[in-house]
């Protein structure tokens, strides 16, 4: 018998524009993989910025992924931050998969080249209203175990993003959506933003498209 694969996939989970008081923004969150059922090479990129300007945050992860249970895989690799400058590199380890009741979980631990440790948790859930209309709650939490003032990062939970997006699948591979996103900064990170005269909370209406191929 021939060995199945290799397979590949690209998923644009978020490619959106946000509209908030004072400024409009853009966000991308795209990942892909290449490999077999048990072992894969995976990449992830995400970032955001103000419309008409260069990204304020931009990163790329390159990971080796190994399935350890049905629908679950552990990941290890590197992350490179392009923005905010100066650029930084991180070691990455984490897990990704479907929790009970089909919650999609992506959790990772990052250790920078300077030894600073941080973590990120993302959770999503697809609620099918019809075969094509899908409501997706989404939660993201970022935390740091040490303070890095040069990058505006404080110790503890830094920020959270809670979103609710309603998408319509024109076909399974492409689905425009509309929604709302609420982002909140916390603790030392919020204090650093206040010192710079920045807001620590923002609510945006978002419009975008989810795609895969």
UniProtKB/TrEMBL annotation:
Name of the protein in its database record: Copper resistance protein CopB
GO molecular function: copper ion binding
Pfam (any one): CopB
GO terms under biological process: intracellular copper ion homeostasis
Domain of life: Bacteria
One term under GO cellular component: cell outer membrane
SUPFAM superfamilies per the UniProt record, alphabetical: Autotransporter
